[in-house]
TrEMBL record:
The keyword Amino-acid biosynthesis applies. One of its GO terms (molecular function) is S-methyl-5-thioribose-1-phosphate isomerase activity. InterPro entries: IF-2B-related (IPR000649), IF-M1Pi (IPR005251), IF_2B-like_C (IPR042529), Initiation_fac_2B_a/b/d (IPR011559), M1Pi_N (IPR027363), NagB/RpiA_transferase-like (IPR037171). It comes from Rhodotorula taiwanensis. Keywords: Amino-acid biosynthesis, Isomerase, Methionine biosynthesis. This is S-methyl-5-thioribose-1-phosphate isomerase.
Length: 446
């Protein structure tokens, strides 16, 4: 299987693509790669409605129980990663507005709304935004994108001479902007982060000029989590492109296995040297191997720098700061990579961040490709799936039935454990002797 994900030169926008040589405006839909199926199967699914976007972000699935009753259950999302969630929500809304512009009714909007006063369409748009907002709670990028749309929509509707047509057009353009701008932003984050860490390590005498560095990351923060290139994985991609990446270690990232399933695919497609590390082996890795940097993404960063990110980011950051007595490492630098849209300046600290709890059963099960373990033990290669090929994937219970798991999707790493927060406009650092950031000042100064 060659999974071609977006790098700087490829036409696919991260987790998204538009087929048939069309623009989003012409297609009135976007396709997303089904991240539940990766890495075993490459499956693209079309999203052209608000409900479709909501569903892919939250992923509510229906099971037909044996008595014929429908049971709805929450599964891991098909699209995930803070910036990608925001982009898809915006595109789902835009797709429906494009549909009514071509004279069709869409599930959310009757075509006749276009000939009604703009206030009627505005009301419906705001209601749809409120619905999308409830899909997942922790990543702030979703709220930021929806607020941006709401503000633009209200301003357009209040303009002298505004029509429902002009309102729809405005909302479509702002929504598409959420998606397109994200990729460009990510490239700047990657380059800013790579420069910052290399300069810092050289300045501190921890590496020689031009020396390569080893990096550890967690979860998936690359093309699949954004509109392209990625945040923390973008820093790694930039180091690799500059010939300065010695090795990329990535945490398996249970229970959803974003590292094992998704980051593994992305690093392979970048051609970067990489090794997976079980979440339980992070301490041992830092005790035994040279690691210069731990770089993580973020779902929400409070104004003091406290950062919510994938569960285990906190314990890895703690490890990074407390080198093992046998370790070849001085404390490992911790860098958070995120766009400005991930900063939540309304929150003073990470205490205020709502952490999504995932269902117990998700932590008690493993989902994967069915293979013959004897073949693996003999070192035989498993044939990669070809595009479109159906692979036998199963969910298996690994706990005794009835076991209950506490399963938070994210944790909060305190600002005191983070040396830098790299964004598209530069790197925020704490003042000398400070334990916290002043991100409001950082943003205002730019
Ligand atoms: O539950 P997920 O997979 O949506 O969690 C994703 C993360 O925690 C990422 O690190 C974060 O969204 C940053 S992605 C650029």
């Amino acid at each position: 299987m060659t999974v071609s994900l977006s790098t700087r030169d490829e036409p696919v926008l991260g987790a998204f693509r538009i087929t048939g040589g069309k623009t989003f405006y012409e297609a009135q839909a976007v396709e997303i790669i089904d991240q539940l199926a990766l890495p075993h199967t490459i499956k693209w699914e079309q999203v052209d409605t608000v409900h479709g976007a909501f569903d892919a972000i939250k992923t509510m699935k229906s099971l037909r129980a044996s008595q014929g009753t429908e049971v709805t259950y929450a599964s891991h999302p098909q699209i995930r990663g803070a910036p990608a969630i925001a982009s898809l929500a915006a595109l789902g809304l835009a797709a429906e507005l494009l549909a009514i512009q071509t004279g069709r009714d869409s599930p959310s909007f009757s075509h006749s709304l276009l000939s009604s006063p703009p206030q009627d369409l505005l009301e419906r748009i705001l209601e749809r935004c409120a619905y999308l907002f409830t899909s997942r709670p922790t990543a702030v990028n979703l709220r930021e994108a929806l607020q941006r749309i709401e503000v633009a929509a209200k301003a357009e509707a209040a303009k002298e001479g505004a029509t429902a047509e002009s309102l729809a057009k405005k909302v479509i353009d702002v929504a598409v902007g959420v998606w397109v701008e994200d990729k460009e932003r990510c490239e700047r984050i990657g380059d800013n982060g790579a420069k910052w860490i290399l300069d810092k390590l050289e300045r501190e005498g921890k590496i020689e000029k031009g020396e390569k560095i080893a990096v550890l990351t967690v979860c998936n923060t690359g093309s699949l989590a954004t509109s392209g290139y990625g945040t923390a994985l973008g820093v790694i991609a930039s180091l690799h492109t500059q010939g300065r990446l010695l090795h990329a270690y990535f945490a398996q990232t249970g229970p959803y296995q974003q590292g094992a399933r998704l980051t593994a695919v992305e690093l392979a497609s970048l051609g970067a040297p990489h090794t997976m590390v079980c979440d339980t082996a992070i301490g041992a890795l830092m005790a035994e191997k040279r690691v210069h940097l731990f770089v993580a993404g973020a779902d929400r960063i409070a104004s003091n720098g406290d950062t919510a990110n994938k569960i285990s980011t906190y314990q890895i950051s703690l490890n990074a700061h407390h080198p093992h007595p046998f370790s070849p490492n001085p404390p490992v630098t911790v860098l958070v990579a995120a766009p400005l849209t991930t900063l939540d300046l309304t929150m003073k600290s990470g205490r205020e961040i709502e952490i999504e709890q995932r269902p117990s059963w998700e932590a008690c099960t493993v989902r994967g490709r069915v293979v013959d373990p004897a073949k693996l033990a003999k070192g035989e290669e498993v044939e990669p799936a070809r595009e479109g090929e159906e692979i036998h994937v199963e969910t298996v219970l690994v706990t005794p039935p009835g076991t209950k798991a506490w399963n938070p999707a994210f944790d909060v790493t305190p600002a005191s454990l983070i040396e830098g927060i790299v964004t598209e406009v530069g790197v925020a650092e704490k003042g000398a002797g400070q334990d916290e950031y002043d991100l409001r000042a950082f943003v205002e100064e730019r």
